[in-house]
Amino acid sequence: MEDTSLIHNRDAGIERLLEIMRALRDPEAGCPWDIEQTFATIAPYTIEEAYEVADAIEREAWDELKGELGDLLFQSVFHAQMADEAGHFNFQDVVRVMSDKMVSRHRHVFGDQSNQKSADQQIADWEAIKAEERAAKAETGTLDGVAPGLPALLRAYKLQKRAARVGFDWPTTTEVLAKITEEAAELVEARETLTQDQVEEEFGDLMFVMANLGRHLGVEPEAALRRTNAKFIRRFEGVEAKLAARGKTPVQSDLSEMDALWDAVKADEKAAKTAK
After folding, report:
1. Are 222 and 151 in contact (CB under 8 A)?
2. DSSP labels for 186-212?
3. What radius of gyration do the chain's Cα atoms show?
4. Nearest-angstrom CA–CA distance, 237 and 201
5. By three-state DSSP, how is residue 147 classified?
6. Which of the 8 DSSP states describes residue 12?
């Protein structure tokens, strides 16, 4: 009979989780669903778990964050187990590579460099070290290494940040705002005269410049949009609650009434903040 003591040892740490993953993927005694998964099928779950971590942080849901971080860790363990089975690498290799990277990138902590640096100097040093790493991978282009699989808005932000390092950037937000006005006007024209494909292209141009404005303002656009999404949900649910108090649903209401209730919800939020 197979020894499962490690799996049931709640104090065994990461080794317990690794053993659980090995058991789940066991070709004979494992879970059918886990066995049939591949890197490609698991990747969407990995992305989803990362966003759930970000969501818990955004909501300051610290009790939930523990579980969400565990879910994200499990994704790394899952990928590492599949890689081990295929002969690519194992979990300890992942840990080793990450540890080596952190030591290499923090020479002011683990090396002979001084840690008495400004934040700006540390950022400059960090970027120089990452440039060395990209060069070692033969990534010589300015935009090489910006992952294609990133969410489009986040990737736009990172592409522009990378281009700015070599001077391809507007000097102030004034120029960015002017470009937004220009792109918005082009979108209006596209809507009236161009094909749907061209409309999509113009809309993408506007979104791209908006991401650049965020960078100039020190705002990460993906985080800002997540925050606005959460605010929209909160306020619309407030509208629904006020409609329910009237014995109605949104379908039984109209835009005029819901718009007025939206303003009422905003006023309630403002009053609650003032009361604090």
Report:
1. yes
2. HHHHHHHHS-HHHHHHHHHHHHHHHHH
3. 25
4. 33
5. coil
6. -
5-19, 109-123, 169-183, 258-272: range with lowest mean pLDDT = 109-123
Question: Tell me: the pLDDT tens digits for 133-150?
Answer: 767 776 678 888 888 878
Q: Which two tokens stand for residue 70?
A: 């565990």
- Is residue 1 very low, low, confident or very high in pLDDT (cuts 50, 70, 90)? low
pLDDT for the residue numbered 2: 76
Structure tokens at 47: 């992305």
CB 22 within 8 A of CB 3: no
- Tokens 């960090």, residue located: 126
**pTM (two decimals):** 0.63
- Residue whose entry in the numeric block shows the structure tokens 């700006």: 120
Here the tokens at position 163 are 């281009």
| Residue type for position 29 | A
Cα separation, 218 vs 220, whole angstroms:
7
What 27-34 contacts at long range (C-beta under 8 Å, 24+ apart), as own/partner pairs, is 29/2, 34/78
CA–CA dist 118, 124 (Å, integer)? 10
> Looking at residue 181, what DSSP letter applies?
H
Handedness of CA 77, 82, 83, 87 (dihedral sign): positive
- Give me the phi and psi of 37, to 5 degrees please: -75, 155
Residue 258 has pLDDT above 60, yes or no: yes
